[in-house]
Amino acid sequence: MAYKGTNYRGWQRQKFVPSVQQTIEEKIIQLLRRDIYIHGCGRTDAGVHASQFFAHIDLELHELEKIERLNMVLPNDIVIKDIFKVEANKSAQLDAVSRAYQYNIHFHKNPFITLTSALYDHRDYDLEKMEKAFYLIGEATDFFQFCKTVKNYKTTDCKIFDLTFNKSATSNTIHLKIKANRFLRGMIRYLVGDLLALGTGRLKLEKWEGTLQNKQERKEKFLAHPQGLSLIEVKY
């Protein structure tokens, strides 16, 4: 599936606020006329998008025809791209071996991309320093300083598989892609927030390297806007 997260408080169902999971579950219940639970491949924060997202549900064979009508009742910002059968012991979350996110930044106001890209137009940025710092992420292994809820994890180690820094002078945009075996809550937004702080001089490169290597803990942290972040790939 894919969804634009602008109108939702993230993937996971929560009390009193709309979520992607809740929206899909309610529409499936409407079609099947019974309670059901969707197991997502992960969680996305409020306002974060997904161009590729997987979830699994337990269905009876005769219910498949009804589920295939799901796109007809879902809102326009959520789409089911495909439905396929898997073995009963497969998990959309636990069997994933890698995930990739992309963070989009634009430096001049653009109404056509404002919902899926983060605008940072208040000053000039040192893009060379940002790019150098970005590729240093690949040398890190423990990202506990880039996590909102450290106590929720048994380990904060993550293995970075791939990093891509693409900048366009013509469109004044940057697209950052990070692929890893797992991500911590808020991890990418904290990393991107630091990169932007580096670009403006609010954060020194030496201090950034020390944070990545966990040689020193920083009290001041920078959290990038959510709308620039999208889950773009999940591998099994």
Explain how this protein is built.
This protein is 22% helix and 19% strand. The protein has 236 residues and is α+β, with helices and mostly antiparallel strands. It folds into two domains: 78 residues, Alpha-Beta Plaits (2-Layer Sandwich); 138 residues, Pseudouridine synthase I, catalytic domain, C-terminal subdomain (Alpha-Beta Plaits), CATH 3.30.70. Strands 3, 6, 7, 8, 9 and 10 form a six-stranded mixed sheet that branches. Helix 4 packs antiparallel against helix 5. The longest helix is centred in the last third of the chain and has 14 residues.
Distance between the termini: 15 Å
Describe the biggest sheet? 6 strands, mixed
- Kindly report the name of the CATH homologous superfamily of the largest domain: Pseudouridine synthase I, catalytic domain, C-terminal subdomain
- Computed over alpha carbons, the radius of gyration is 19 Å
CATH level-3 fold name of the largest domain: Alpha-Beta Plaits
| Estimated helix fraction | 10-25%
CATH architecture of the largest domain: 2-Layer Sandwich
Total domains: 2
The CATH class designation of the largest domain is Alpha Beta
Element-level helix/strand string: EHEEEHHEEEHEEHHE
What ranges have pLDDT less than 50 throughout 5 or more consecutive residues?
none
**How does the helix and strand content classify structurally?**
alpha+beta
The general outline is globular
